[in-house]
Specification:
Number of helices: 6
Protein name: BAG family molecular chaperone regulator 2
Order of helices and strands: EEHHHHHH
GO biological process, one term: protein stabilization
Keywords: Coiled coil
Number of domains: 2
GO molecular function, one term: adenyl-nucleotide exchange factor activity
Low-confidence stretches: 1-18
InterPro entries: BAG2 (IPR037689)
Radius of gyration: 24 Å
Largest sheet: 2 strands, antiparallel
CATH class of the largest domain: Mainly Alpha
Number of strands: 2
CATH architecture of the largest domain: Up-down Bundle
Mean pLDDT: 82
Length: 203
């Protein structure tokens, strides 16, 4: 595994790799080739890059956690359970619940600054998606079709066969760009889940 390294060259810090601690500022070396302001700006530039990378990594972890939860849900509702004995089914259920409990101990979040209108828009979007998820086990085909209309609202090249949900489109356009990207990835995860279930849209 590669480890980040900072090297103190004269009075300057140089950076290589990823994952290490940021350098401390050596205030005693005021006679370096860079002016004090430039040296401070250079450190802040590094901090800003690390913050953005931290946000990206956290979003990736959020997406991975959602994917794991979707997989566990598909296991709990798998048709394969009907082909095994009740004893084996209980074993599978206990195993799934144990993993689910462990997964729920992981809490990660990236906060996005929003104004009241953006907060309300995101609330509406989450409500639409939550209702969609709840409807999956009632009618997966209809849920898949609705999911595709939501995805069409998030892309510049929608699927003409399934159309676009205008209410969802209005809500998503009111969200921040970060939230729009996150919602689109969430919808793609749901579409991938439908694909695993071999669900098709309504004709």
């Amino acid at each position: 595994m590669e480890v980040d390294q900072y090297t103190n060259v004269g009075s300057e810090w140089s950076y290589s790799g990823e994952g290490s601690r940021l350098p401390l500022i050596d205030e005693s070396s005021a006679l370096g080739p860079q002016a004090p302001k430039d040296r401070l700006i250079a450190v802040l530039d590094q901090v800003e890059m690390r913050v953005e990378r931290l946000r990206r990594d956290t979003v990736r972890i959020e997406e991975e956690r959602d994917s794991l939860l979707s997989t566990l849900d598909s296991v709990k509702h798998s048709e394969l359970l009907s082909d095994i004995s009740e004893c084996d089914k209980e074993d599978i259920t206990r195993y799934t619940d144990r993993i689910l409990a462990r997964a729920m101990t992981v809490e990660v979040a990236v906060r996005t600054d929003r104004d009241p209108q953006q907060e309300e828009a995101l609330h509406q979007v989450n409500l639409y998606i939550d209702q969609l998820v709840m409807s999956v086990h009632e009618d997966a085909v209809i849920a898949h079709t609705r999911c595709q209309t939501y995805m069409n609202a998030c892309t510049s090249q929608p699927d003409p066969a399934s159309g676009t949900d205008k209410n969802f489109e209005s809500a998503i356009l009111g969200c921040t760009l970060d939230d729009q990207k996150r919602v689109k990835k969430r919808l793609q995860g749901l579409l991938d889940y439908f694909a695993k279930l071999n669900v098709t849209t309504c004709s």
